[in-house]
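Chain A, query sequence.
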Amino acid sequence: MATDRFLFGLFEAAVNPTFVFIMSLWYMGAEQPLQLEVYYWTNGIATMFGGLVGYAMGHIGTGLPRWIYVLLMFGPLSFVQGILSLLFLSDLPSTARFLTRRERAIAIERVSRNRQGVKN
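Chain A, predicted structure.
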């Protein structure tokens, strides 16, 4: 169990720095604080509702161990979210498939004025 907690913490520790890095690729410096605040706000709301769902699942009275219900609900959701992120989350505005060529050029020029990110 301690090994599982360690590995979970190890992988979870990369989430916030990665999100801030991705945000620096897509938003201007003046826009980043508001976007980061929205992220932290929605993260807090998800934590509240996740606790409620976990509590409710802990009171299911069937023959399976209670932790299996949490795994069966959140496991597939996390898996689908990971696959969708791999398919649709672009690493840079220049590789965003959901933008037209003109929109990509505008996004690259706009963020390059920021003088931060991978390519200035």
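The chain has a mean pLDDT of 85. The two ends are 44 Å apart (CA to CA).
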